[in-house]
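Hi L.,

You mentioned the student needs an example of a multi-chain input paired with its predicted structure. This one should do, with 523 residues in total across all chains.
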Amino acid sequence: MEGATQAEQFIPAGLAALGIEADEVDLAVIGAVHQLLWPPIVELLAFDTAGLEPERCPDLSKAPR
Amino acid sequence: MSGDPLDLGLRAQAAAIAAGELDPAELLAAALARIEQRNPALNAVVETFPERSREMLAAAPAGPLHGVPIVIKDEWPLPWRAQRFGAAELSAPTAPGESGPYRALRDAGAVIVGVGNMHELGAGSTGNVSVYGAARNPWDTERCPGGSSSGPAASVAGRLVAGAIGADGLGSVRFPAAYCGLTGLKPTFGRAAMAGHHMAPVTNMIVSGPLCADAGDCRLLGSALFGEELAAGEAAGLRIGVVRDPVSEDVAPEVREACEGAIEALRGQTGGEVREISLPDLETAAVAGILIINSESMSGTRPGQLNALHPDLSPIARGTLKYRMLLPAAATVQATRVRTMMRRRLADLFDQIDAIAWPTIPAPAPPLEAPLVELPSGTVTADQANVRGAALANLTGIPSISVPVGLSGEGLPLALQLQAAWGRDELLLDAAEALERANGRRWVEALPPLAQSSPAEA
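Structure written out for the whole complex:
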């Protein structure tokens, strides 16, 4: 319920801030995607990578240097 | 020659042409005829261009694929056709042109016979959404063929052609290979031709890759895409890593049984060993992959463009494109840190093992009308379930291959995924061939009902 309320605020506010129009169908799809994706995004943001040395301009064709 | 040449594999077609036993003009005509016969049931090929194909054949050099018909995914421009990406509209500009895969095929002597259907905007693992309508699985036309390279896979599984070019940004070669009972290679990032793809300048995730009946055919078609010969070797003493993780355990029981059996068969065939390895945070890696590719896909898109989307874009695509604009930049940066972490973990692991094995798909192809899968943890969308095991290779750049390892109780293909260190694509092909030998090529030679010739075709 709380998540739904947050989405009700976040999605229209975010879209409006960017000037993106959305009809009812758009909002229903966006709400469904948000419900699936947002919790893991929050978990990702909370994931501890503090001690990790960043890989500058990684070459994905090779093992990390 | 006796028998229908379209039922031969890619190597056999190429060899028969090279030996003068098969007329490539007749093979092209036969492929076009078979597309007419079988494609209505599959919707695998969305466009043919017989004149262009004949011109390509007339100009074809005596390369390793001389005269062999190939289907290419609707993801690259051709000199006579812009890609549509399975959608009514792309936010990126497109135009006809010579893409990298087109040049690779042309220079190898191949003939592009048609464009393969794909999941709209490449944004799905099922292939049931496309501006052209859903592609269908030759093993059961009411089931998903897998996505996003749905048409290329259904084309090969339905024996319209013996080889097809797909693309893989988050499993999009491997899922349809698995659902359709094929072998599909996701190359090491940067090794296979990608020029001309509308995301090529910005992506660190997407690669082109071959879909064929078996690993030998993938080696031949992959060599063309790579621009170098993928030499065959032995996967002797293969050290196989397996994980205790939902990617290998939260899967349908018949998937687990088939994959465990295949891993054991591969170990026995190569005289190798199976080791349990630790590779934590795979779900975090999957989210990181989703975030990065979604962010890459919006490169150059202005918010105002999203207010004038083509009316024929699906509601899912319209909503998803708008939602992508709301993804937090901090999360995408964090995703790149997770990428680094996983790359380092893999580099350490590949000092100890040669390949990591787990199921390509956690459950067989779901119904087109409701692409949900039942896992021990519950019922989820196929997309949610599939991405967990596929994202790691795209996120980190390593190569990966999907190989058929059995059929479900309902007669649908099951598949094992093998992943190796950067640049070891050849080892994956060697391992896949070893597995084929171990099971007597039973699964790579299995034909779906739709590909078994009817009397009218014989």
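You could point out the following to them. The CA atoms of residues 3 and 9 of chain A lie 10 Å apart. Chain A touches chain B through 38 residues (CB under 8 Å).

Best wishes,
N.
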